[in-house]
Amino acid sequence: MYRQIVGYRDFHADVSFNFQLNRWLPYLPETELRQAAAEIGDFGDWKRVMWRCAERAEQDSRWAEAGFYYRAAEFFLLNSDPDKMRAYEKFRENHARVSWDVDYERVEVPYPGGFLPALVIEPEGALLDTLVVHGGFDSFAEELIHQFAPIAKCGFRVIFFEGPGQGYPLKVLGMHMTPDWEKPVGAVLDHFELQECSLMGISLGGCLATRAAAKEPRVKRVIADDVLEDFFGCLASRLGKRQARVLQTLLDLGANALVNRAMGKGAAKDPVVGWAVDHGLHVSGTASPFEYMQWGRRMNTRGISHELRQDYLLLGARDDHLVPLEQFYSQARTLVNVRSFSSRLFTASDHAGSHCHIGNQELVNRVITEWLLLMLDGDRKELN
Predict the structure, then answer these.
(1) Whose CA is closest to 50, among 72, 24, 35, 81?
(2) CB 174 within 8 A of CB 164
(3) Are 230 and 300 in contact (CB under 8 A)?
(4) What does the angle CA 273 – CA 274 – CA 275 come to, to the nearest 5 degrees?
(5) CA–CA distances in Å: residue 281 to residues 175, 179, 236
(6) Buried-most residue among 113, 240, 310, 374 (CB within 10 A)?
(7) CB-based contact 355:226 (threshold 8 Å)
(8) Residue-wise pLDDT tens digits, 55-80
(9) Can you tell me the distance from the alpha carbon of 237 to that of 160, in angstroms, rounded to the nearest whole number?
């Protein structure tokens, strides 16, 4: 079952392994994770150890833990590994076996190429608003419902959906992610006959939700949880400033072969870069690192932030290892026409200073809920 965790643990010296271990801590026993971490030195170890833990949990009928161990194993597998799809299937299979203490309904939203899966939690008490939630580069809807379910207790219908390039639409239906995120958001709003809603995007979803809100007037309130103004900037930051400038120049020149070679070298030096490129090719449907980098350059909010007229809540994390801190401030500066602007930069003292505030989801939910209630109260006062 899901547990509210406070505190970011030191499981592993590698920042990426440590982040993922903390990510799954709300679902998995801390003692087991510490034992697992001691055996992990590379991606091969990660798969072996997480898969073994998953099988042991299945043997003990610990379905929730089995599912999330498979999810953890799946995360770092390359798409050429047939076990990646098997791990995804085992995750969903075990997740469905659990009698979760969150009641939700599965809904299929019609969309070109198939459908978008949505998970819906109805509010406790009178309906105040509908909050539509989606992930970003690598999350599944089944993860998000447990993190944000408490918001429904305050009068919000919460709709979690997977769009093109995410979860089931990507893995099973072959849909690739589009920067035109107003299209999947619009399909969800159409299907549920919503004339207005609040929209929240997680991780890369902060960029996607901002892009969607610029084109979709039915979105009245936007939550970027957390900031991600420039996806290419996040990718380039792992290469270092000098290499990032060289890469930018090569992309501008259309130097396809040189970019592919440079990214190959980067992947050889940094396995996380290799994983990100492999996953990115899959998400974007591009055929080479050059094409993927060009696609990634479109994933930004610079050209559209000034178009937003909604209430906007920007969340950031001071110690984020994936999103450069300067994007928190540059995103804030470009939202010049929003109806209202609020922000919160979480820190280590909040136990929420890591990417997506892993370590204190309870605090994040409280900040989001209080902001939503404040915005709705302001709307009611204006009407009166």
Answers:
(1) 72
(2) no
(3) yes
(4) 90
(5) 12, 15, 16
(6) 310
(7) yes
(8) 999 999 999 999 999 999 999 999 99
(9) 30
Q: In this structure, are residues 369 and 377 in contact, taking their beta carbons and an 8 Å threshold? A: no
Residues 297-328: b if buried by 16+ CB within 10 A, e if exposed = bebbbeebbebbebbbbbbbbeebebbbeebb
Residue 274 CA from chain centroid, whole number: 19
Per-residue pLDDT averaged across 264-292, rounded?
91
The residue assigned the tokens 């409280």 is: 366
Q: Give 98-112 as a DSSP string.
A: S--SS--EEEEEEET
| 105-230+299-383 CATH | 3.40.50.1820
* Nearest residue to 52 via CA among 40, 25, 352: 40
Look at residue 119 and give its three-state secondary structure: strand
CB 228 within 8 A of CB 234: yes
Residues 341-367 have a mean pLDDT of 97
Token reading at 87: 């791990």
Do you know the residue count of the chain?
384
289 phi and psi angles, rounded to 5 deg: -55, -35
The predicted-structure confidence for 308-331, as pLDDT tens digits, reads as follows: 999 999 999 999 999 999 999 999
* H helix or E strand, kind and range, residue 9: none
CA angle 370, 324, 221 (to 5 degrees): 30
The phi, psi pair for 296, rounded to 5°, reads -60, -30
What are the boundaries of each domain within the chain? 15-97, 105-230+299-383, 232-298
What b/e string do you get for 51-63 counting C-beta neighbours within 10 Å, with b at 16 or more? bebbeebbeeebb
At 303, which amino acid appears? G
Map residue 249 onto helix, strand or coil.
helix
- Per-residue pLDDT of 1-32, as tens digits, reads 799 999 999 999 999 999 999 999 999 999 99
- The CATH architecture that domain 15-97 belongs to is Up-down Bundle (1.20)
Q: Where are the beta strands (DSSP E) in the chain?
A: 105-111, 114-121, 129-134, 156-161, 197-202, 219-225, 311-317, 340-346
Q: What is the pTM of this model?
A: 0.96
Reading the block at residue 220, the tokens are 């009245």
